[in-house]
Amino acid sequence: MSDSPSLLVRAVWFVFVGWWLTGLWLSVAWFLNVTIVGIPLGIKMINKVPFVLSLKQRDRLVDGAERRSQYSVPVRAVWFVFVGWWASGLWTGVAYALTLSIVGIPLAVWMYNKLPFVVSLYSY
């Protein structure tokens, strides 16, 4: 059994809170990412975007096995420095614009779910 809220609760959250809170959340996360000392918290905030947007819980394996394998920290750091910071900014802008349109919401939610990978190769 899943600990996630029902689809109805998640939809109500998205309509009344998730869409605007995600914009604020990402603004703070991006500000933190342009500072050296704020990068760890900014990355953590970006990794939480799917939850902030729609209360989406991280998928867990039933047998308790390890999460999907992750890239090593040095590889993820190099990706962030050369690609992740600017690619995630573009990705976020497009996703937020899609969030504001009715027909673009499904694609925007998918993009937000992929944002942790775009910014730091983190598999959510």
List the topology elements.
Elements: H1 7-33, H2 39-47, H3 49-54, H4 73-99, H5 105-120
Describe the structure.
The chain is mainly alpha-helical and 124 residues long. 69% of the residues lie in helices and 0% in strands. It is built from five helices and no strands. Helix 1 (7-33) packs antiparallel against helix 2 (39-47) and helix 4 (73-99) runs antiparallel to helix 5 (105-120). The longest helix is centred in the N-terminal third of the chain and has 27 residues, at 7-33.
Strand content: under 5%
* Poorly predicted ranges: 61-66
Compute the separation of the termini in Å: 20 Å
| C-alpha geometry | globular
Structural class of the helix and strand makeup?
A: mainly alpha
Q: Give the number of DSSP strands.
A: 0
Task: Estimate percent helicity.
Answer: 55-70%
Overall tally of domains: 1
Number of helices: 5
Indicate the radius of gyration in whole angstroms: 15 Å
Q: Biggest β-sheet: count, sense, barrel?
A: none
Q: What number is the mean pLDDT?
A: 85
Compressed to H and E, one letter per element, the order equals HHHHH
TL;DR?
This protein is mainly α. Helices cover 69% and strands 0% of the residues.
Q: What descriptors fit this protein?
A:
5 helices; 69% helix; 124 residues; globular; single chain; mainly alpha
